[in-house]
Amino acid sequence: MGILDYIVMFVFTGIIIAAGLSFGKTGNSMKSYFAAGGAVPWQISSLSLFMSFFSAGTFVVWGSIAYQYGFVSIAIQLTMCLGGFFVGMFIAPAWQKSRALTAAEFVSRRLGLTVQKFYSYLILLISLMYTGAFLYPVAKIINVSTGFPIEACILVLGILIIIYTAVGGLWGVMITDVIQFIVLTGAVLIVVPLAFDKIGGVEELFTHTPPDFFMPVNEEYSWLFLLAFGIYNGIFIGGNWAYVQRYTSVDSPKSARKVGYLFAILYLISPFVWMLPPMIYRVVNPDLSGLENEGAYLMMCKAVLPRGLVGLMLGGMVFATASSVNTTLNLAAAVFTNDLYKSVRPDTQPKHLMLIAKLAVIVFGIMTIGVALLVPSAGGIVEIVLSVGAVTGCSLYGPPIWALFSRYHTGKSILWCTLLGLSLNLYLKFLHPLLTGISLNRAEEMLAGSLIPILFLSGYEIWARSWGKVSEEYRLYKKIKDTVSHGEKTKPADESSKAQNSFGLKILARTMAITSMIFIGLALTADQKALWTTLCVGTVIGFMSWFIHRKSGRYSRNQ
Prior knowledge:
Layout (H helix, E strand, L loop, with lengths): L2 H19 L8 H6 L6 H13 L3 H12 L2 H26 L5 H9 L1 H34 L3 H50 L2 H6 L15 H17 L1 H8 L4 H22 L1 H9 L11 H9 L4 H36 L5 H23 L8 H25 L5 H26 L5 H26 L4 H19 L4 H29 L4 H31 L1
Helix pairs in contact: 1-8, 1-15, 1-21, 3-8, 3-12, 3-15, 4-5, 4-13, 5-10, 5-12, 6-7, 7-8, 7-15, 7-16, 7-17, 8-13, 8-14, 8-15, 8-16, 8-21, 8-22, 10-17, 10-19, 11-15, 13-14, 15-16, 17-18, 17-19, 18-19, 21-22
Subcellular location: Cell membrane
GO biological process, one term: sodium ion transport
Pfam family, one: SSF
């Protein structure tokens, strides 16, 4: 990396931090801080969901698999498209109809305070593992690019993420997500043609890669794995408490449905573009092995991008991957403040609650940094993401989703299904290999993790239906839900929420305009191969910023 790359990277970092901090004075209530006012445009909510999910593994996890196995990585990500359509069709509108601020609030109303506390503590623990795992690839990207020690990268980036997440709330998270999506989409559209040019054309990719490089499955990632991972993704995207905020922060079930559908469309298209750089790098350098594979994506970018664009791509990668961290930190603070602290001290003043919320972000952020430092000793990011997901994902997030639709499950039945599912999956992962010497392969592990909780949930549902035992907790929840819905229909609109949403669109437009100028400026320093592509990308982003600015003005006048 040259001096221009470092300058661009630091400038882009400043832009992202400034965008997040600009919402410091708008998030003055629990609803504005944790639900972004409750009427976020569905396009922004969906792009934020996409980046929160996409960035968790694209550059390091799926990039590593793309370098090693090729098309397998694309096939794995297409299951996320199917999961998104399922969520958009059924789960996202159901969450929005619940009228709950967080998933934990729904669990409390539907299943009782005891079950809600159990889930809250357990999900906070699992969230720490995930955020730590997701902070590691952010640091890995910087480490590969600059040579700085990975421990230092984790500490510095963790602190930056904590600052703008604590100050900006959910709107700050969402706007930075959208900016990262735009920057990275533009950058990858520049990288791909330059990468093909470096190896001598598209044909060379087919000629100089292993014979099975374009097969959708292999021994480790089989058709059975894809089936299991598709089920897992439908539950994880629909039930992860951090992602639920994207469905509850829009204004209607119809908008929530669109959030899921746009997410699915993006995952139908993006893997075919995003996975090309590490796949092409297999031709450039076929000798990476072990944890070196995790750096293949950035190595390809460094090999072909002109001065300055490497720094911009690096900055986009860093904060896009960090999206998963700030999303989960916001969720952890929401659960702790709204659903744990507030239940113990219900008379706490709103101003004091906001202080607790921001302190919670800081504390959970520090704990996340500690977990990230332990990732290399646990076998690398791929092993952690897939294993933790297989063992805990469906057992934790499946039961609350089931409760959204079931009249028969009780708090106790949901709790027991969760405990039995987790216990059996933990046994199969850790104890069964020790006792029998037989361990499940990747596909069997994922399938067991996906189906075991569903079997427990459906078993109780069938039994309760056969006896006609409608849950008393469901009857009480229905009364509470009807009361809340009626109150919201008769309640005057929240002017501060409208102002916050209008302000969010203006910040997005201004930040995109600055980003457009960066692309155009870098185009003027690029060689002939990259000049016109970079210039076109910058011009398109500039046009989009103008369009959003006009829309924000009309939105403000209408409000």
